[in-house]
Write a structure and sequence with these properties.
The protein is built from 13 helices and 19 strands. It has helices at about 5-10, 20-25, 150, 170-175, 180-185, 185-190, 200-205, 285-295, 320-325, 335-345, 365-380, 390-395, 410; strands at about 30, 45-50, 50-55, 65, 80, 85-90, 95, 100-105, 120-125, 125-130, 130-135, 160-165, 210-215, 220-230, 235-245, 245-250, 260-265, 270-280, 400-405. Bound molecules: FE2/S2 (inorganic) cluster and fe (ii) ion.
Length: about 425
């Protein structure tokens, strides 16, 4: 449970808010590189942290992320002409470069130097691993570029998708660290989804519905470990990584690619659910890539031409009561990604956390909130950079491992929790 002011603090990320300041300390995913496929391609609107922005790629291949609206009289530059190293507003022809600098005001005499005085808000936009990253905070405090393993492995080993989720970022993120829902909500899919099925770990997961949770602080966030019974008195551990503010990585299953998410606020009522799937030591198979593109695993099918899920709030997520009754799906919604999204959206845009009744399996969520609150306070009061900004905090992996009963997971899985190039993931 949170007090109302704590809930407000954690869920509001617009300009001038404390949590907004925290999010602006990080490089966050802004767009997929495929959205700006070539020089002078159409610009793309994107709302991040409640700011309406426009991304474009100029004649020289430089990326820009600028205020969506023209400084003259507020026209959306989405209508702009992407031409000769800049974006020209179609209303009266003012032109901007990728830094937001106005470089031409055709109606004014050039010698007046008027255009030099006009600059739109702009943020860096950098491609890494097929994702365009931005950092919307103070340029003087910009951290090093991100080092997440899914963007540093060779491109044939990794796949990333994104989807608009119609809920606040925090309740989406809390789903990402809440592995106690898996044997309920995803029960019907563990042994049928092509990216989840056929591994010993699923048997352990489905065979013990009372996992014991142990949550331990990591340099960048938390290790959230779920312990279940295995054979011979051993324990099967699933260790989820949470790195601040909103990176979550699900423990692997067998030799499947490993997956996880970023939960990035679009505004306070909507977020971008980024979903990655990669294998640290092998290329993804064609069948795996095809499954990801079809919306299997944690990915979803889209409304064509958008990043909105095809099954969405407006069509009741294509609820199938017969499948629910027969147990083919536990909730009646098809697909692991939409099962999560549908329930999280059903809580309303911002769930009222003053009314919750939390239990021991919610410990990861409770500790994540406290760590966020502490980090926000340290940042706002004393300027302390938050955990997760440092690229060494980002070199993490989730793990699934069977350990003897007397071995703490932190010792037994110590190496497994660090991303090391060319080292296989620890998986059961
Ligand atoms: S509104 Fe853009 S040039 Fe006038
Ligand atoms: Fe889930």
């Amino acid at each position: 449970m949170l007090r109302k002011e704590q809930n407000d603090l954690l869920t509001q990320t617009g300009p001038g808010t404390a949590m907004g300041q925290l999010f602006r300390s990080y490089w966050i995913p802004a767009l997929l590189a495929e959205e700006l496929p070539e020089n002078e391609c159409p610009p793309v609107r994107v709302k991040l942290l409640s700011e309406r922005l426009l991304a474009f790629r100029d004649s020289n291949g430089r990326y820009g992320l600028i205020d969506e609206f023209c400084a003259h009289r507020g026209v959306s530059l989405w209508f702009g002409r992407n031409e000769e190293c800049g974006l020209r507003c179609p209303y009266h022809g003012w032109k901007y470069d990728v830094s937001g600098q106005c470089i031409d005001v055709p109606s004014e005499p050039e010698e007046s130097g008027f255009s030099r005085k006009i600059k739109l808000t702009s943020y860096p936009l950098v491609e890494r691993g097929g994702v365009l990253w931005t950092c919307m905070g103070d340029p003087d405090k910009q951290p090093p570029l991100p080092e997440w393993e899914f963007i540093t492995v060779p491109p044939p080993q990794t796949f990333t998708s994104k989807r608009l989720q119609e809920s606040n970022w925090l309740q989406a993120m809390e789903g990402g660290i809440d592995s106690s829902h898996v044997p309920f909500l995803h029960r019907g899919d563990l042994n049928s989804d092509p990216l989840f099925k056929d591994n010993k770990g699923n048997q352990y997961t489905l065979g013990d519905s009372r996992p014991v949770f142990e949550v331990v602080e990591s340099p960048g966030g938390l290790y959230i470990a779920a312990r279940r019974n295995a054979e011979g008195g051993h324990y099967y551990w699933r260790i989820t990584q949470w790195v601040m503010p909103s990176f979550t990585m699900i423990p692997p299953r067998g030799n499947h690619p490993v997956h996880g998410h970023f939960w990035i606020p679009s505004d306070d009522d909507n977020c971008w659910a980024w979903s990655f799937d990669y294998h640290p030591i092998r290329e993804l198979a064609q069948a795996e890539l095809a499954a990801m593109r079809e919306g299997k695993g944690i990915h979803v099918r889209y409304v064509p031409g958008t990043y909105r899920a095809f099954a969405n709030k407006d069509n009741d997520y294509l609820m199938d009561r017969a499948a629910q009754k027969a147990g083919r799906t536990f909730s009646g919604v098809e697909g692991i990604g939409m099962q999560d999204a549908s329930l999280q959206e059903s809580m309303g845009p911002i769930v009222d956390r003053t009314k919750e009744n939390l239990v021991s399996t919610d410990n990861g969520i409770i500790m994540a909130r406290h760590r966020l609150l502490r980090a926000v306070k340290a940042l706002v009061d004393k300027g302390v950079p938050p955990p997760g900004v440092d690229p060494t905090h980002q070199k993490v992996r989730s793990a699934a491992i069977v350990l003897p009963p007397d071995q703490p997971f932190k010792d037994g899985a110590r190496d497994a929790l660090i991303a090391r190039p060319a080292v296989a993931p620890t998986s059961v």
